[in-house]
Design goal:
The chain is an alpha/beta fold and 276 residues long. It has one domain: NAD(P)-binding Rossmann-like Domain (Rossmann fold). It is 45% helix and 13% strand. A seven-stranded parallel β-sheet has the order 3-2-1-4-5-6-7, sandwiched between helices. Strand 4, helix 4 and strand 5 form a beta-alpha-beta unit. Helix 1 runs parallel beside helix 2, helix 1 crosses helix 8 and helix 3 runs parallel beside helix 4. The chain starts with 6 loop residues before the first strand and ends with a helix.
Length: 276
């Protein structure tokens, strides 16, 4: 898949899913601006990998929770690139800045989630769109279950922020359609080398067993490359008539009915049978 001559910006591009996307686009020939907040070493390592693939790029630092820094980020991209073809909004603050249940959450934690997602995306798209010509691609990385359900209580702020982000994607998709710019959301399932790895060991072990047992039909965690492949497809010329969509890239996890045990759905063997 060729992105020769394309210029891309990936926020949160220094590691994990963002790094996977940066490398996939670079492998196709895109020049890549790699955004980071604090971990410059990881960002530099990603840039070196981009260069090893025969592409070029640069680093840009910003706290996306702060509007003025988002504006500065795009000022640097405009200065370095002059134009932009692909913008991937992937940055998310560390869980400690927003992770609190709804009856206890402080307003500063609520604001950290909202500012980093909905507000940052609103400001970023209004900066990115004037730099794009026909064929531009804007992609938001979300976690759709956080906005659909309410059981993961400490995720309330990020769940609400991601839901707002997904709504903005649909509105921007309509606003930019006549210019030939598409705007879509990718919602990954649980992915290796992501927020997953920052969770307690018991949580990680439980999630792996849950995946393997059948709650994810494909029986495994995703990888950054899985998500990067989906982003590349949406960024391709062939995807020019796909806009305003939320695409689950989760190995089929969103298709499993949580109202029924896996055994009743024919996905997993009964525990008794497994033990026999």
């Amino acid at each position: 898949m060729s992105f020769q001559g394309k210029k891309a910006l990936i926020t949160g591009g220094s590691r994990g899913i963002g790094r996977g996307i940066a490398l996939k686009l670079a492998a196709g020939g895109a020049q890549v601006a790699i955004h980071y907040y604090q971990n410059k070493e990881a960002a530099q390592a990603t840039l070196e990998k981009v260069r090893a693939l025969g592409s070029t790029g640069f680093l840009v630092q910003a706290d996306v929770c702060r509007t003025q820094e988002v504006l500065r980020l795009f000022q640097q991209v405009r200065s370095e690139f002059g134009s932009l073809d692909i913008f991937v909004s992937n940055a998310r603050p560390e869980a400690s800045t927003f992770y609190q249940a709804p009856l206890e959450i402080t307003l500063d934690k609520w604001d950290a989630a909202m500012d980093s997602q909905a507000k940052a995306f609103l400001v970023a798209v209004r900066e990115a769109a004037p730099m794009m010509s026909n064929g531009g691609r804007i992609i938001a990385i979300s976690f759709a279950p956080g906005g659909r359900f309410g059981s993961w209580q400490p995720w309330v702020a990020m769940g609400a922020a991601k839901a707002a982000l997904e709504v903005l994607v649909r509105y921007f998709a309509v606003a930019l359609a006549r210019r030939g710019i598409t705007v879509n959301t990718i919602s990954p399932g649980w992915v290796e080398d992501s927020v997953f790895n920052s969770l307690p060991e018991a949580f990680q072990t439980g999630l792996r067993e849950w995946q393997e047992r059948g709650w994810t039909p494909m029986g495994r965690l995703g990888t950054p490359a899985d998500i990067a492949n989906a982003v590349a497809l949406i960024c391709s010329e062939e995807a020019s008539w796909i806009t305003g969509q939320l695409i689950d890239v989760d190995g089929g996890a969103s298709l499993v009915d949580a109202h029924l045990p896996l055994e009743f759905q024919g996905i997993a063997k009964a525990k008794a049978a497994e033990a026999a």
